[in-house]
Q: What sequence folds into this?
């Protein structure tokens, strides 16, 4: 334990050779290096329909959820009003 806390780093692992100035580059960037294709997300769909049995159960429970939450149209209209007022205030500041 006389080596200190850093003695536990890379225990037994071989060290990478040091990069020699003027030596070969670790990656041949002059030849373009590694190029990976751009990965994009798939087009979405109806998550309820794609959920299978879980989607069926959800569809059965929707009336229950709506009865618990109540009518949210008034809250939605209030939120739209607040948002419009905040946007108007932001426009007057700039």
A:
């Amino acid at each position: 334990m006389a080596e200190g806390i850093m003695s536990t780093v890379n225990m037994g692992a071989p060290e990478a050779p040091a990069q020699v100035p003027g030596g070969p580059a670790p990656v041949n960037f002059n030849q373009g290096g590694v190029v990976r294709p751009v990965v994009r997300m798939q087009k979405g769909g109806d998550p309820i329909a794609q959920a299978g049995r879980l989607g069926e159960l959800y569809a059965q429970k929707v009336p229950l959820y709506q009865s618990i939450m109540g009518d949210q149209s008034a809250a939605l209209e209030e939120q739209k009003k607040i948002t419009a007022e905040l946007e108007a205030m932001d426009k007057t500041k700039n």
In short: Residues 73-93 form the longest helix (21 residues). Residues 47-94 form one domain. The CA atoms of residues 29 and 35 lie 10 Å apart. The mean pLDDT is 78.
